[in-house]
Automatic annotation (TrEMBL):
InterPro entries xref list: Beta_galactosidase_Trimer, Class_I_gatase-like, GH, Glyco_hydro_42, Glyco_hydro_42_N, Glyco_hydro_b
The protein, known as: Beta-galactosidase
Record-listed substrate binding positions: 103, 141, 322
EC number(s) recorded for this UniProt protein: 3.2.1.23
Domain Glycoside hydrolase family 42 N-terminal: 6-391
Length: 657
């Protein structure tokens, strides 16, 4: 459990570095990320490198015992590079070329840009790869952020053609797979195929899906290119990237296959609450704490992406600059977010940023220190966390805690599912991520821990597996259902598409029919005023936004029916399916039944109360407004806080298994 900070030595006079480093160490910080936007200082002109300042910055940090995470600067190509090669600029979906003057102004498919990235990264890793203070490398910064991938350039089109040729071999196969006879879309060669943007009406969804797959692999290969150089010249150092919350432009599981030791992510709970789908009442309710499941959801997701290893690379400390409204967090939240990250298995929580910059785009973004160098309210809380970490109860078993406990419930999070829904939403309100998050929230409100995993994961260790929606069901998943003992719950639109983006020959849920013998004869999207009602386990609720009309075959029980006779929940043995998006009450009733059937305890937690197991510890985190008497067994030994956990406070106790 380490604390870190994001620091930009190039933004401050050199005479300040020494006191910055000293104060970081005094605060209890041990890791510092630097470098990720400093290309114009590393290479002020083509081929003229200036490393003396970075040598010195690293030395100053190292002198104070701080370890460095070095970022490659490829999120910000300098002006001279753009002037030399204007074709590296990105083109957005509307076909508009984006200008220099902020960041991420590059085309991820540009071969010229990739060469320049390889060059600057090679220079960096040759110089610092084996520096004893440099323990980890971050590639770029938040790849694809600001909608910069997919990119719609000529380079992307060329490479997409090559990708399609490799996938299909013959263009006739592509024509058949995509159904290009429709609207005379047939191609005679791969070279004829353009990008799916800027068409008068919808482009072929199969075209879009392949383009999204291609772009996902572009992001992964962009990282992989740098990763290989880092691996070669920086042996034994952790290779990472800082991902974003709720970000699906590329498949993060696939990305991890291109070389990744740790999945790091950037946690901004308040602005996320502002910009996600919550209604106004919820945005208000959680305005100063963030919604209680936003950080946890991403911790659990990225722990899966990193195959167990997860860091928070940027943690919000105070108000930020990028949401429509940017309030000051409630007192205690910077500390709570930190402990929560550790409870979910983070090895490092690193704060954004050391000091608020009084200039440029993020001058309204706070940090650990105000521009005048005084600790902020959040900064004081970090000092408290550092003290708590330093004196953590010795009876707590670090070995057991290092082992992130496998949850009993797995939830499948599928990136292509989100692409498919975005490509063919069909109902204005159907949102894949929202559906997944609502199921996750429901489980967390019952005190249940969840691992988020890809549909290709080995799920044999879980008692319950839930998939809120899985349009393309892999055959191997069906085999896992048949081979194991777990209970399964699938949501609407499951099995609705083939990998080519067509309707399965036997109709949805396609391959899942082998274990749940139903046929979706028609699907409908529901305007907000259309809310068919149903009852499950005595709980009355409503279907919303989407409904699959399921016809049950032999061996299938209909365990809930909408008032108009359409099945709401169907079941065959250990496999269940809900045919619509449900309101929270009905969703909870179904999930609760599944959790109980899987032999897992269901708790009733107060609003904003959350629990999390880590090794032999159990954490209680209170996002609510009132004190909470946490459900620790009688005589439990507390290592943090106590039985009464106040608002924005946290407790942890040792739990015997
Ligand atoms: C992140 C980004 C940082 C900074 C921060 C502000 O998305 O990686 O560089 O911009 O947001 O909240």
């Amino acid at each position: 459990m380490h604390l870190g900070v994001c620091y930009y030595p190039e933004q401050w006079p050199q005479h300040q570095w020494e006191s910055d480093a000293r104060r970081m160490a005094e605060l209890g910080i041990s890791r510092v990320r630097i470098g990720e936007f400093a290309w114009s200082r590393m290479e002020p002109e083509a081929g003229r490198y200036e490393w003396a300042w970075l040598d010195r910055a690293i030395e100053v940090l190292a002198t104070h015992g701080l370890k460095v995470i070095l970022g490659t600067p490829t999120a910000t190509p300098p002006r001279w590079l753009v002037d030399l090669h204007p074709e590296i600029l990105p083109v957005n979906k509307d076909g508009i070329t984006l200008n220099f003057g902020s960041r991420r102004h590059y085309d991820i498919s540009s071969e010229i840009y990739r060469e320049h990235c390889a060059r600057i990264v090679t220079q960096m890793v040759r110089r610092y790869g084996t520096h004893p203070a440099v323990i980890a490398w971050q590639t770029d910064n938040e790849l694809a952020c600001h909608d910069t991938a997919p990119s719609y350039t000529e380079a992307a089109r060329r490479r997409f053609g090559g990708w399609l040729a490799a996938r299909y071999g013959e263009v006739e196969r592509l024509n058949a797979a995509w159904g290009n006879v429709f609207w005379s879309m047939e191609y005679r060669s791969f070279a004829e195929i353009g990008l799916p943007n800027r068409t008068p009406t919808d482009a072929n969804p199969s075209h879009w899906l392949d383009f999204r797959r291609f772009m996902s692999s572009e992001v992964a290969s962009f990282h992989g290119l740098q990763g290989e150089l880092i691996r070669e010249h920086a042996p034994g150092r952790d290779l990472l990237h800082n991902f974003m919350g709720f970000f699906t432009s590329f498949d993060h599981y696939e990305f991890a296959e291109s070389g990744l030791d740790v999945a790091a992510w950037d946690s901004y709970p308040l602005p996320r609450t502002e910009v996600l789908w919550f209604d106004d009442a919820d945005k208000h309710r959680w305005a100063r704490t963030g919604h209680p499941d936003i950080p946890a959801f991403n911790h659990d997701l990225y722990r899966g992406v990193g195959k167990g290893r997860m860091w928070v690379m940027e943690q919000q400390v105070g108000p930020v600059n990028w949401a429509p409204y940017n309030p000051v967090p409630k007192a205690g939240m910077a500390r709570l977010w930190t402990w929560e990250a550790f409870a979910h298995g983070a090895e490092l929580v690193s704060y954004f940023r050391w000091r608020q910059a009084p200039f440029a785009q993020e001058q309204m973004h706070s940090g650990i220190n105000a521009p005048d160098d005084k600790l902020t309210a959040g900064g004081h809380e970090i000092a408290q966390v550092a003290r708590e970490l330093a004196s953590f109860d010795p009876t707590f078993d670090p070995a057991a805690t290092a082992q992130v406990t496998q949850a009993r419930v797995a939830m499948l999070f599928d990136y292509p599912a989100d692409w498919i829904v975005q490509i063919q939403r069909h109902g204005a309100d159907f949102d894949y991520q929202r559906l997944v998050f609502e199921w996750y929230s429901c489980l967390r409100e019952m005190g249940v821990d969840v691992d988020l995993l890809p549909a290709t994961a080995d799920l044999s260790g879980y008692r319950l597996v839930v998939a809120p929606s899985l349009p393309v069901v892999p055959d191997a998943l069906v085999a896992q259902i048949q081979a194991g003992q777990a209970h399964w719950l699938f949501g609407p639109r499951t099995g609705s598409k083939t990998a080519d983006f067509t309707i399965p020959a036997t109709l949805p849920p396609g391959p899942l029919q082998a274990v749940l013998n139903v046929r979706v004869s028609q699907s409908e999207s529901l305007r907000p005023s259309l809310r068919p009602a149903a009852t499950f386990d005595g709980v009355r609720g409503e279907g919303r936004s989407w409904r699959d009309h399921v016809e049950p075959g032999p061996g299938v029980d209909v365990t809930a029916v909408f008032d108009d006779g359409v099945p709401a929940v169907v079941q065959a043995g250990r496999v269940r399916m809900t045919t619509a998006c449900f309101d929270p009450a009905l969703q909870r009733a179904v999930l609760e039944r599944c959790v109980r059937d899987a032999g897992i305890e269901v708790l009733t937690l107060p609003e904003g109360g959350r629990l999390r197991r880590l090794g032999n510890l159990r954490f209680a985190l209170n996002y609510g407004d009132t004190a909470w008497r946490v459900p620790a067994p009688e005589g439990a030994r507390f290592v943090l806080g106590g039985r009464e956990t106040g608002p924005s406070d946290v407790a942890a106790w040792i739990e015997m298994h």
